[in-house]
Amino acid sequence: MPYPKDYRYTREHEWISVDGAIGSIGITDYAQSSLGDIVYVDAPKVGDAVTANATFGSVESVKAVSDLFSPVSGKVTAVNEELKTAPDQINQDAHGTWIIKVELSNPAELNNLLDATAYEAFIAEETGS
């Protein structure tokens, strides 16, 4: 699956898509594929603060529980409530399913993230393919 060129990526396999001062955050197709069937998503509440490179929740699959790391710092403005009853949406469309939306407190943090080409190279290096 091609990784959207307008997204930014973390080495922990989260993505962020930015529109103005709001970033939508989800996990990559590589992450959902590695996890297998996702059965539960633990996310913060609207109004909570998140910090770049710190955990903000977790994703539970039939195989494992994986922490979610925020690519940026800011305040949560929305939580994808549909994931409470249909967490498998992430398996069906990882790059189209956001988990939280964040108002960025420091947009310069985006410069620390990988672009799609660098992320694809990172995955290839990690998997040895």
UniProtKB/TrEMBL annotation:
<dbReference type="InterPro" id="IPR002930">
    <property type="entry name" value="GCV_H"/>
</dbReference>
<dbReference type="InterPro" id="IPR011053">
    <property type="entry name" value="Single_hybrid_motif"/>
</dbReference>
<protein>
    <recommendedName>
        <fullName>Glycine cleavage system H protein</fullName>
    </recommendedName>
</protein>
<dbReference type="InterPro" id="IPR033753">
    <property type="entry name" value="GCV_H/Fam206"/>
</dbReference>
<comment type="function">
    <text>The glycine cleavage system catalyzes the degradation of glycine. The H protein shuttles the methylamine group of glycine from the P protein to the T protein.</text>
</comment>
<keyword id="KW-0450">Lipoyl</keyword>
<dbReference type="InterPro" id="IPR017453">
    <property type="entry name" value="GCV_H_sub"/>
</dbReference>
<dbReference type="GO" id="GO:0019464">
    <property type="term" value="P:glycine decarboxylation via glycine cleavage system"/>
</dbReference>
<comment type="subunit">
    <text>The glycine cleavage system is composed of four proteins: P, T, L and H.</text>
</comment>
<dbReference type="Pfam" id="PF01597">
    <property type="entry name" value="GCV_H"/>
</dbReference>
<dbReference type="GO" id="GO:0005960">
    <property type="term" value="C:glycine cleavage complex"/>
</dbReference>
<feature type="domain" description="Lipoyl-binding">
    <location>
        <begin position="22"/>
        <end position="103"/>
    </location>
</feature>
<dbReference type="InterPro" id="IPR003016">
    <property type="entry name" value="2-oxoA_DH_lipoyl-BS"/>
</dbReference>
<dbReference type="GO" id="GO:0005829">
    <property type="term" value="C:cytosol"/>
</dbReference>
<feature type="modified residue" description="N6-lipoyllysine">
    <location>
        <position position="63"/>
    </location>
</feature>
<dbReference type="GO" id="GO:0009249">
    <property type="term" value="P:protein lipoylation"/>
</dbReference>
<comment type="similarity">
    <text>Belongs to the GcvH family.</text>
</comment>
<dbReference type="InterPro" id="IPR000089">
    <property type="entry name" value="Biotin_lipoyl"/>
</dbReference>
